Amino acid sequence: MTDQIFDSNSYLNMELLRFTTAGSVDDGKSTLIGRLLYDSKSIFEDQYENIRATSERRGENFVNLALLTDGLRAEREQGITIDVAYRYFSTPKRKFIIADTPGHIQYTRNMVTGASTANLAIILIDARNGVVEQTRRHSLIASLLGIQHLAVCINKMDLVDHSKEVFDNIVKDYREFASRLQAKDIQFIPISALNGDNVVTRSVNMPWYEGVTLLYLLETVYIAGDINHIDARFPVQYVIRPYKDEFHDYRGYAGRLSSGVLRPGDKVAILPSGFTTTIKAIEFDGEQLIEAYAPMSVTVLIEDDIDISRGDMIVRENNQPQISQDIEVMVCWMGDKPLQANGKYAIKHTTKDARCVVKEIKYQLDISTLHRITDQPEINMNDIGRITIRTTAPLLYDSYKKNRETGAFIMIDEGTNVTVGACIILE
Amino acid sequence: MSFTLNHLKSLESEAIYVIREAAAQFQNPAILFSGGKDSIAVTYLAKKAFYPAPIPFPLVHIDTGHNFRETLDYRDKLVAKLGAKLIVASVQDSINQSRVTEERGYNASRIRLQTTTLLDAIEKYKFDCCIGGARRDEEKARAKERFFSHRDEFGQWDPKQQRPELWNLFNGRKNVGEHFRVFPISNWTELDVWQYIGMENIELPSLYFSHRRRVFERDGALLAESPYIPMKPTEIVEERVIRFRTIGDITSTGAALSGATTVDQIIQEVAATRLTERGGRADDKRSETSMEDRKKEGYF
């Protein structure tokens, strides 16, 4: 990058890949990210000098690349990752946002956070330990959160003599478990994050491996099909009323398309009222657009004078979401206190605020076996389970499988205001 | 028909979504405006978010009193152009009122004192949300920030107890006396900001472009000669051709040798550089975790 002229236009037209990393404690996650950043020349000299000096001071006999991502004092002291850290790098092919999430069991909520916006998940397995409970938990969460692409990296191959047999056995174990997951695209790569084997450059130590390197996979995995361009869903976020003479009767409905495409002239329905009208114009910063598609932020103007406010949704008349107050949900629980049957919680769904009551806890999912525990199920922090809720106002939703934005909501403890549940709508 | 947004357009859309969300969820938000390119970009995005209505909240400048003249000129011009409301909270006032004590010595700076001035302003004007231009790629503690970042009644950030932030659902619920910091351009890199400034033709303070200035070297950074920075006898002032990569308080803003006079040249320079943007910031060099420590106290 230093030697050549930087091509501004090709940078502008690059695609963005968001991925998340998951593994158990000491699987070498931070080292892997450090390696990706270092080998793709995304680390700056002063950053490198800083971690080199810190490694030396701590008596480590190599430059500890994990220090690049462990930014908090407590993380550096304990040598672990506590909170999601976001990292950015680019290659000539793509821009990347990494959500580096902690592997400890008590911080699973951060893993869910990182996974909720990711296109791809890197699942790290320590070659010496094989598939462990954390591997299953992380894979399940990634799959549940609709991540289509999993890159399973079997790390620390240097510690098992770069053995093909070890790799093959882990792949077999993983496949057996993964047959019950929803993710369609799963790739396996034997790596050594510490030495850089198969991360950016091909390993000379594992000639038996004929697949691609991790970076190549990240640069080429097909993600354009991940966005739903069929179902137009426009949750109204904010109503723009200028109160200026030249914009006397202006009412603009500001928001971001969750999915689909809208054009001026489209026949639309305003939900939940059900009134129908036509889109008069779609604007952005004073400019008239001929169409808007997800995930664009725009302002929509309509022909008729209809009362619309935040939390309402503009959709095509002939393609509407479901409307109900009784919702079937998979919940990842993040609260200190267990989920309360009959408990009441605040919820945020698209731009709508409401409250809900938990009508029934149907089962808790055993993460290791994917078995359903139906006998007195209890959902504690880091547990996943199926529940039925009833909301104070009807939600306008699609299933999460069809739509990652209108199919998800969060539950909030009304006493502490803390986000306690990540909810995925099933049908 | 491909229906794809390029990387910058999707970052712009995300930032506008976050700004509108702040306007919708809070009673009394404000933009923290430093005169630097990041807060300029945020202000510009806020203008787009509500057009044709004006930005529905004021710009707040926490003024250390140690400014580059160019920054203040630019600020006043921008405020006039946008028809926005400007609130200036001054560190000098906080010193005069004995709220804080001025640091002494060669590396004395008002960076840390700003925290008190900022928190006092939040209390005085009852802001429940301060929108800032911090980016996660700037600094390792900022890499851990949420878009909606909770602050307790003392203005403190608790990085170990952050609320999970799922999908694009931002939880801005709080108790009385608490507030939020909101960071719309969290996911932008330095290069993204420059590309955006170029693409949108946004006017910037002249300090960002190459010019001749009297500077001296301290701890590997070039600092501008100024009445606010006491110099050591061994330090020599020289006129050099420089530009600033970040703009903050004059005592802690490092200059870089550069001949870049246009945004395009700056983009080339940023793309090729091997040093981080904050590498020239004396305020970050105080300790390995100085940003984290300041943020916990309530800093930007």
What oligomeric state do the depicted chains represent?
Answer: heterodimer
Question: Span between N and C termini of chain B?
Answer: 43 Å
Strand order of the largest sheet of chain B: 3-2-1-4-6-5
**Overall 3D form of chain A:** globular
**pLDDT averaged over residues of chain B:** 86
Largest β-sheet summary of chain A: 8 strands, antiparallel
Round the Cα radius of gyration of chain B to an integer and report it.
Answer: 19 Å
CATH class division of the largest domain in chain A: Alpha Beta
Please identify, by name, the CATH architecture of the largest domain in chain A: 3-Layer(aba) Sandwich
CATH class of the largest domain in chain B: Alpha Beta
Portion in strands of chain B: 15-25%
Coarse structural class of chain B: alpha/beta
Find the count of extended strands of chain A (DSSP E, 2+ residues): 23
Helix percent of chain A reads: 10-25%
**Proportion of strand residues of chain A:** 25-35%
